[in-house]
């Protein structure tokens, strides 16, 4: 039985910062941001968007009535959770009007969580072939104003429907995974900002990639020749390129050129959104599928998932016949085209707007936010979500 990605959707907030202007404001050479880390724009989340609303908006336009009935498992991958007890999946389940006879859970392991969700979904489909699973990767990356990590912030979510007989990508079973207890990036319960050892994290990302890629080759019998493209988790777009370059000497010039060209295409969306943690790998995949004009049905796409702390996995999938007919390219193009640039002063003001930390009630102006699903405020310690079109 084939199992894989049947639908895939994406959402990012309606405002962004130009990285050239951010660099000037921080007295940094613009090329350090646009070339050095490979970022052009950075999505900014208004106070009316959180990990719940981002995920729900990402799924909203890809689901039809059949999906809402057949989805009996919602897996919410995030490191931007809003409650220590209640899962983000329960909120999203209600906002999307899904079948009540469903499981709904939240999973966490830094940027790896959505990949874990997909693998859990595959097991569920094996046991329940008529079911569908909604897997969500949703995050807001915040490091603080004028910090070393500021240029790698971002906000967004990717939603995927996993099912039997998928119409976009069949997931193969040659997965290889690796865990090691390291402190390259972490966020203690008491902190609203992450801690990161940047140099160490970059080294571990590349080390994990080399280990799981080597093991994948041994397990699958495939090498770079069999990969039409490889997508990476992208905390910033140059990170995946650094890892890819470590293995390109093992193949021909033709294959190197193909992989590098596809890599560039796969970073288009990420370059203009920033880091979305759990969704970053799948935003890269979506960018490749929607922006590439020469990907053929039956192509094998490799994927490297990495979550600091750390867990890594390499796996692959096969593009299905006429997969492009099942992408949501028009809506995603409109999403990008409708975004508004904010000046640095506006961005800093928005960044400083935070929800009360003392349990106070607050009402938010959702009319300034064009998204269908928004956070409208907090009442009696409960977040109030609104679907404007329900």
TrEMBL record:
MF (Gene Ontology): hydroxymethylglutaryl-CoA synthase activity
Q: Where is the Hydroxymethylglutaryl-coenzyme A synthase C-terminal domain?
A: 181-251, 263-352
Q: What is its EC number?
A: 2.3.3.10
The answer to whether UniProt assigns keyword Protein biosynthesis to this entry is no
The answer to whether keyword Transferase applies is yes
Q: What class of enzyme is it?
A: transferase
A Pfam short name: HMG_CoA_synt_C
UniProt keywords (A-Z) are: Acyltransferase, Transferase
Which parts of the sequence belong to the Hydroxymethylglutaryl-coenzyme A synthase N-terminal domain?
A: 2-165
Give the NCBIfam families listed for this entry. Answer: HMG-CoA-S_prok
The family annotation for this protein states: Belongs to the thiolase-like superfamily. HMG-CoA synthase family.
Protein name per the record: Hydroxymethylglutaryl-CoA synthase
Q: Which organism is it from?
A: Ornithinibacillus xuwenensis
């Amino acid at each position: 039985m084939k199992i894989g990605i049947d639908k895939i959707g994406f959402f990012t907030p309606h405002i962004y910062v130009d990285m050239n202007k951010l660099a000037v404001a921080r007295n940094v050479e613009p090329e350090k941001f646009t070339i050095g880390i490979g970022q052009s724009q950075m999505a900014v989340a208004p106070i009316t968007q959180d990990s719940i609303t981002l995920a729900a908006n990402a799924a909203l336009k890809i689901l039809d009535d059949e999906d809402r009935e057949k989805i009996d498992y919602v897996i919410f991958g995030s490191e931007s959770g809003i409650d220590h007890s209640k899962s983000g999946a329960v909120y999203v389940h209600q906002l999307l009007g899904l079948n009540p006879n469903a499981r709904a859970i939240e999973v966490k392991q830094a940027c790896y969580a959505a990949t874990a969700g997909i693998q859990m979904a595959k097991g569920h489909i094996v046991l329940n072939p008529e079911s569908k699973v909604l897997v969500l990767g949703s995050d807001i990356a915040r490091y603080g104003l004028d910090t070393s990590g500021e240029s790698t912030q971002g906000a967004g979510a990717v939603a995927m429907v996993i099912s039997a007989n998928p119409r976009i990508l069949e997931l193969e079973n040659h997965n290889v995974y690796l865990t090691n207890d390291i402190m390259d990036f972490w966020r203690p319960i008491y902190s609203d900002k992450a801690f990161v050892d940047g140099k160490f994290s970059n080294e571990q990302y590349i080390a994990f990639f080399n280990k799981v890629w080597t093991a994948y080759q041994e397990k699958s019998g495939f090498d770079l020749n069999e990969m039409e493209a490889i997508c990476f988790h992208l905390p910033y777009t140059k990170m995946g390129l650094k890892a890819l370059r470590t293995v390109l000497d093992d193949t021909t010039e033709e294959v190197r050129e193909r992989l590098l060209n596809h890599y560039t295409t796969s970073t288009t969306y990420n370059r203009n959104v920033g880091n979305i943690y759990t969704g970053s790998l799948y935003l890269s995949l979506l960018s490749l599928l929607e922006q590439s004009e020469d990907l053929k049905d039956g192509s094998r796409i490799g994927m490297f998932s990495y979550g600091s702390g750390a867990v890594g996995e390499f796996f692959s999938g096969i593009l299905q016949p006429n997969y492009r007919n099942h992408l949501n390219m028009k809506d995603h193009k409109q999403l990008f085209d409708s975004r508004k640039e904010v000046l640095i002063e506006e961005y800093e003001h928005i960044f400083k707007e935070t929800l009360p930390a003392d349990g106070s009630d607050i009402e938010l102006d959702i009319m300034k936010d064009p998204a269908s699903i928004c956070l409208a405020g907090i009442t009696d310690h409960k977040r109030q979500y609104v679907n404007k079109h329900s």
